[in-house]
Amino acid sequence: MNARPIQLSEHFRDKRWSTSSWRTKAAAQQPVYDNLVDLEGVLERLRQMPALVRSTECVTLRQQLAEVANGWGFLIHAGDCAERFTDIHRQELTRKVRAMGQMGLLIQHATQQPVVQVARMAGQFAKPRSQGMETVNGVQLPVYRGDIVNDVTAHADARRSDPQRLLQAYLYSAAVMNQVRALSGESLTSLGLSEDAWHLSRLGELTQEERSYRHVVQQLTTILKSAPDGAYDAINLYVSHEGLHLAYEEALTGTGDDHHPYNLSTHYLWLGERTRQLDGAHVEYFRGIHNPIGVKIGPSCKPEELQALITQLNPNNEPGRLTLITRFGKDRIAQSLPALIGAVQEMDARVIWSCDPMHGNGIVSSQGIKTRRFQDILSEVRSAFDIHDAAGSRLGGLHLECTGSDVTECLGGSADIQEATLSENYTSACDPRLNASQSLELVFMISDCLQRQALRGAYQKTGEMREIG
Ligand SMILES: O=C[C@H](O)[C@H](O)COP(=O)(O)O
Ligand SMILES: C=C(OP(=O)(O)O)C(=O)O
Ligand SMILES: [Mn+2]
């Protein structure tokens, strides 16, 4: 079905876009550099650097996402809150790719539909912050803004914005991308899917839920054993990051094979909750690139504002171009989401709805550590499914902060992480991530919602109608 173009306001139609037109607008959350000559030198070097992705890969991802927007398939978008240069480590990367693949397999098993996997990886180095300054041990310091800007160490020198980090971020992204590409097309099984990798050995006294998780893993293991190598579990991972540091993004924007502008440092970019001002520099940059994009939507977003954002970011109403990533918090989703769904339905906008159950559920432990409760995260995802179902809409994606190793950053889950043990292996430099077992558990615990949705009647696969269930 061809989507109806959305009416662009005159205000917008008149404006010419270029890779640098964002510079005429107010840009939130940008670092301040004290040496602009150094900065310009680094940006010039970045402009000469090879692309990290091909525009044709972005087009393929857009096509796969178009299927999801049309009701066929599911998007899993997940990874670190902030990648760190020092965490870029061969085995750690393999664990992250494996965890993504395992979540993908569980979703595919529940829905019997394709899963599109996009990692927050190979460039997720820039962080927007609530405050510009913080006090550590009585000393006022600029906040950490991600490894692309400064260092997390609580010292004035470390917190200075250093332009050389832009080049390092590019080079580390290239190194990560190289490993992602090396694993692409491999079978996930070849990365090792032992009982340990499914975190089965953790389960002690088996509850009903744990028994059925074990059963699903056994089924998957049988399917994987009988399928030809890679037929069911081939790794096909796209990469993404928040398009925050606009000078960096501009330097890595080039012309694609189809002669349109693309950000060639990543397949997919998203616009953050703190930088999606309608008249701001980030929206200006995003509207011109042809990559598939996402935009975070928090409780402050009004229906008319969402409609204006959609109009600016996807004026031709192309399915696969735009994902709305909602992040309200478990207690606010019921109040915020229905009116926004109504706004999207009113304009017949072809978007993917994705749920980020992380960023509205942050809490601080009694020892002052940033954390999130597994139960709150699960509750927001379940509510998102229910609210979309009730409104005749469809939840097409899940957006998580998680990692492939055994960190202790979020509370609860079957690993039962408590406040007292949070500091045992808390390595995130920004927000708390689900560890590998909590991630698999979360995805498993929404299998019923995924299944119900997949069986819920008619859906549209590009060009044809099919009935299931
Ligand atoms: O990842 C998201 C934001 O950068 C993060 O939640 C901001 O954290 P802050 O409120 O500690 O600045
Ligand atoms: C900054 C982030 O989220 P949000 O913009 O939703 O706060 C993030 O995804 O890490
Ligand atoms: Mn985050």
UniProtKB/TrEMBL annotation:
> Which Pfam families does the record cross-reference, listed alphabetically?
DAHP_synth_2 (PF01474)
What is the uppermost EC class here? transferase
Q: Which cofactor does it need?
A: Mn(2+); Co(2+); Cd(2+)
Would I find Manganese among this entry's keywords?
Answer: yes
- Record carries keyword Transferase: yes
Q: What is its EC number?
A: 2.5.1.54
Specify the superkingdom.
Answer: Bacteria
Annotated residues that bind phosphoenolpyruvate are located at: 120, 273-274, 296, 327
Q: Which GO terms describe its biological process?
A: amino acid biosynthetic process; aromatic amino acid family biosynthetic process
Q: In which pathway does it act?
A: Metabolic intermediate biosynthesis; chorismate biosynthesis; chorismate from D-erythrose 4-phosphate and phosphoenolpyruvate: step 1/7
A molecular function GO annotation: 3-deoxy-7-phosphoheptulonate synthase activity
Q: Which residues bind Mn(2+)?
A: 81, 359, 401, 431
Q: InterPro entries this protein is in? A: Aldolase_TIM, DAHP_synth_2
Task: Tell me how the cofactor is bound.
Answer: Binds 1 divalent cation per subunit. The enzyme is active with manganese, cobalt or cadmium ions.
Entry keyword set: Amino-acid biosynthesis, Aromatic amino acid biosynthesis, Cadmium, Cobalt, Manganese, Transferase
Q: Which reaction does it catalyse?
A: D-erythrose 4-phosphate + phosphoenolpyruvate + H2O = 7-phospho-2-dehydro-3-deoxy-D-arabino-heptonate + phosphate
What family is it from?
Belongs to the class-II DAHP synthase family.
Please name the PANTHER family in this protein's record.
PHOSPHO-2-DEHYDRO-3-DEOXYHEPTONATE ALDOLASE (PTHR21337:SF0), PHOSPHO-2-DEHYDRO-3-DEOXYHEPTONATE ALDOLASE 1, 2 (PTHR21337)
Q: What is this protein called?
A: Phospho-2-dehydro-3-deoxyheptonate aldolase
Upper classification of the source organism reads:
Bacteria, Pseudomonadati, Myxococcota, Myxococcia, Myxococcales
